[in-house]
Design goal:
Radius of gyration: 21 Å
Number of domains: 1
CATH superfamily: FAD/NAD(P)-binding domain
Order of helices and strands: EHEEHEEEHEEEEHEEEEHEEEHHHHHEE
Bound molecules: flavin-adenine dinucleotide
Shape: globular
Helix content: 25-40%
Number of strands: 19
CATH class: Alpha Beta
CATH architecture: 3-Layer(bba) Sandwich
Oligomer: single chain
Structural class: alpha/beta
Largest sheet: 8 strands, mixed
Distance between the termini: 44 Å
Length: 392
């Protein structure tokens, strides 16, 4: 049986970032994904916010043109235009980004097993090691690891097997991606409040001149995303965006956890990152920035666990650290979830058009508030680690 320091299940942004950072420290890592090709079946629009763009380096060619303009629409299509003096968003070219992260991992010695399903995990009893059952091409095999990382998305099987918290509340998003080469206006993000087409979230058009993403999101129990997208395109999107020269390239969709970072996200055998950890803003449903930041924290804690050979170090990686930061966003999520009436939404939109409302909307779209950073202090004498949040 092969033995690895770390096995990471899931090569989305969270898993790739964690593998990339850990591999630089020389750990023996296995990265596993059931996909044979990471560039297929992508399930994110890929909008990165300013804070992420400022704090992280992106490989050349992996970002679209910067977006400074947002138009917000009411159910009756009344609108508010918000413009920033700074570049606020970029739509990532996700397939290229994943490819570049993976290349970096492979160059630093990460073993990547694609087309491989994670089946189960059991604790071996020796030094908190875990034995995993994986399956590739219909054949199952086992590997052993000191740290199992669940980067396997909202419906994480690793979370279940490690007996950690699991996501219980999510919305679903579904979009079509068009490639376009005729572009006349400024890159813009259009957001639509609509209790029927996007119950509990938004419908959107992100147009940076190269890619046009048209999508809807909301609570699965209250709508059919595919039907809603069809209606949204006919009723609204095609009146705002000219798709006559655009070509449908792919569809993307998936669940987005919205109940905030889960409390129990680590034990002595492993930990969770990304959507598996619920690391998504409950208000904006943005999960890419949290993928990068939480995976960086996970990589630091795992490195320390490997260097000290002390599995208890992993217990410092706790969701409790983050929950207080998300209290107001969780309350706003509850309020949004309750608004199932178009008239009420129209009324709320009236507030957004006022002075205070505009300020609030600008703060939500342009504020530098994303996932908190964590400072990690290591006490070499006591072999312990202390993690605390930094102010944004
Ligand atoms: C439609 C949509 C649009 C979105 N748009 C944005 C946006 O514009 N900006 C933003 O910030 N956030 C956005 N989000 C949220 C964001 O995309 C996610 O939070 C983020 O991509 C999560 O990354 P991840 O690596 O945790 O999970 P994932 O990207 O889900 O990766 C999980 C990986 O695990 C693999 N896997 C799962 N189970 C197994 C198994 N048993 N065995 C092997 N492999 C397995 C999967 O194949 C997958 O590759 C969006 C989400 C959706 C659904």
């Amino acid at each position: 049986m092969q033995t690895y320091d770390v096995v990471i299940i899931g090569a989305g942004l969270a898993g790739l970032q964690c593998a990339k950072l850990l591999s630089r420290g020389g750990a023996k890592i296995l990265l596993v994904d059931r996909k044979t090709d990471l560039t297929k079946g992508i399930h994110t629009t890929g909008i990165f916010v300013r804070k992420t763009l400022e704090d992280f380096d992106f490989p050349a060619g992996t970002l679209g043109k910067p977006v400074r303009n947002v138009t917000l629409y009411s159910p009756k299509l009344k609108s508010i235009n918000l413009t920033s003096e700074r570049d606020e968003f970029c739509v990532g070219k996700i397939a290229l980004l994943y490819g570049s992260f993976l290349k970096d991992c492979l160059e630093n010695g990460v073993e990547f097993s694609n087309g491989t399903h994670y089946v189960s995990a059991k604790v071996s009893g020796q030094k908190s090691e875990t034995i995993l059952k994986l399956e590739k091409n219909g054949k199952s095999f086992e590997v052993r690891t000191k740290a199992l990382v669940g980067a396997d998305g909202t419906n994480s099987r690793v979370a279940k097997d490690l007996k950690l918290d699991e996501n219980r509340e999510w919305i679903v998003g579904y979009e079509e991606v068009f490639h376009s080469n005729v572009f006349t206006s400024e890159p813009r993000l259009y957001c639509f409040l609509d209790a029927e087409l996007a119950p509990g979230y938004l419908a959107w058009i992100a147009d940076d001149g190269e890619e046009i993403h048209i999508g809807v999101g909301g609570y699965a129990a209250s709508f059919n995303p595919r039907e809603a997208l069809k209606k949204f395109k006919v009723k609204v999107a095609e009146k705002i965006i000219d798709l006559s020269n655009a070509e449908l390239a792919e569809t993307r969709g998936g669940r987005i956890p919205v109940s905030g970072v889960l409390r129990s996200i680590a034990n002595e055998n492993g930990l969770l990152i990304g959507d598996a950890a619920g690391a998504v803003s409950p208000l904006t449903a943005g999960g890419l920035d949290p993928c990068l930041r939480l995976s960086a924290m996970a990589a630091s804690v795992i490195t320390e666990r490997l260097q000290t050979d002390n599995p208890k170090i992993l217990l410092n990686y706790s969701g409790e650290l983050f929950r207080a930061r998300f209290v107001s966003r969780l309350w706003m999520r509850r309020i949004i979830a309750m608004v199932s009436n178009q008239k009420l939404l129209e009324l709320g939109f009236g507030f957004l058009r006022g002075k205070i409302g505009r300020k609030f909307a600008s703060h939500v779209f342009f504020g530098r508030g994303s996932f908190p950073d964590v400072e990690i202090k290591i006490n070499a004498k006591s072999n312990s680690l202390n993690a605390s949040l930094l102010k944004n």
